[in-house]
Structure formats: structure tokens, C-alpha cells
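=== RUN LOG ===
request id: a7f3
mode: sequence -> structure
chains: 1
length: 317
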Amino acid sequence: MATGSCAFPSTLDMNELPIVRFKLNTPPLRCIIEAILPELLDNFENASVEVVQCPDLTQPPFNLTSEGLCGDENVFDIGDFSNVVPLIKREKLYNVKDLKQITGSDPLFIIGACGGPYPFIGADSECVENVKMTGDRVENGTHVHMTKSDDVPECFHKSLPDDEMRFSILANFFTSNGFKGEVLKIVCEVRKGPLSYSTCIKEALVKHFGNEIIALGGVILIENGKVKVHVVKPSLAKIPIKSEKELGTLLHYIELSPPVVGVGCIVSHDPGLNLRLQHFHLYTDRNQGGHYHNDTEPETIKYTGYFGVSKQFTKID
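=== RESULT ===
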């Protein structure tokens, strides 16, 4: 979406915005396995959950900037849907570098789903955040997906340079030291129920843990079967909307063929903070991607996810 001659506002400092933090009571990984496996088996023909050593996520097909998901694990919810309704709030422009001061972590590895930096891209976009900061050194593997036409559902891709650390509107990030260690491996094949992979995990956590907040973050590999994603149309910036239902008319829906990788978060409970409880952005090595909805070939789908369990939850702005 072209942004024309718009004068862009200054980047907000997240350290100066409202921040709500929760220390989470992180259950043992085996308890999470017992909680989610029965629900997964109700929605998928085959499912397994186990504790494994995280694979090296810097290697294909993941190509992330850090090896693992462990160490000082946090889940962040930044901004929200009110930044889109009725029109996009252009002042909601953030810098991921601020999270280093907020967490106090070094190294800091950040993955997740957010709105892209429209001043740099020249369009609103679906952003796959993938950043590692060690001291003053930045490795930015972030990339964004967008469309240029309201009529043609074609996906365009850009990678961000190391010095472009901004994002916009809203974000759901999992952060850690990026160390290797034990994670949950969640494999699901052949969907027989209505729920997406991430929705099924979230609903299982809700059923078992109730109002206790369990926050997971990590990476998904779609090995078989196609999945549906969206990218926003250029007209999103111009047409007032009142609800997420109306937003659906301003999105292009695209199918992605495997292999597909995604990063994002799952949160089991909203204590009244207007949280987005699940949010994943997907990408391929063919420069396609977008916001994950569900698979479109349930009879062949196979998901393999690796997740860390957050020790803290933070809501900003």
C-alpha cells in the first residue's frame, strides 16, 4: 500500500508507554503435555507432544537469528486492534530495540508477528520479526509481506536491513536469550475438527488451566498441506472500519504450499487487557507469507511446532 507524501511521526519509546507485567507460574512441561494432548487428538487424527532439545533454528528451513528458545523467556503484547479502528493510527510506530532495556536480557532474541515499518516499506505489511541483539550488535532477519493492488492477491516481499528495527500498530512477540535447551515439540497431522493448530492449543490450555495465564512462543513448520494466510489491501489505510468482520473485506487471502514456517505466540487467558491470544505470521523460502488462519488441505496437513514456555507476560501500550 503506497503511503504517498504522508509525514511520518516519531518512533514511540516503549519505556515511556503504559506497561503491565505479570510473573507467570510456569507449570512443568509434562503438565502442559497432559493438558493439551487429549484436545489435540480430538481435532487431529494424529498428535504427539514431547519434551525435546530444541533443534538449531538458525538452520533451514527455519533460518532464524538464534539457535534456541530458552533463557529469560517473555511474551509481549504491544498495541492492539484499536490502533486499526476506525483508521490506522500512524503514530503507533515502535522500535524493537526498546525491548532490550525493558527485559534486561543480553543476548535478546525476538520472534513473532507484528505490523511492518510502513515508513521504510512504503506500505502496510505483515511482518515476521526475527532479531537477535548481543551487546550493541544487531542481527536482523526480519522480513515483511504486502500487496500492491486491491484487485490482485499477489504477495510481495522485502527483507529489513540491520538498522531498520521499527514495527507498527500491534505486535505479539516471544523473547528469550536464544539459548538451546528443552522445549515442547507439538506435532499434529490430518485435521478432523474445525480448529486451527494454534487455536486448538489455546483452547486446550484454557480448558485445563482456566484463568491461569499460560504463554507459549515459538516456531511452526508446516511440512505437508497448504495453509491460508492474509495480507492487507492498500485500501485499508483509506476506508474506515468498525470491526474485525469489516476488516475481512480489506484483506487478500492467499494459499501457501509447504514447506512453510511461522513464528508467534499463544496466550491462554486475557485478564481484561484486550489481548490477542494467538498470533502467527508465516513465511516461505519463495518470498511468500502472511498472517496465519488455518490449513486448507486438512487431509494432508502436518504441523511440527517447537515452543518455549514464558516466565513473564508483558502488555505495552
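=== NOTES ===
Confidence is low (pLDDT under 50) at residues 1-5.
The CA atoms of residues 233 and 250 lie 5 Å apart.
=== END ===
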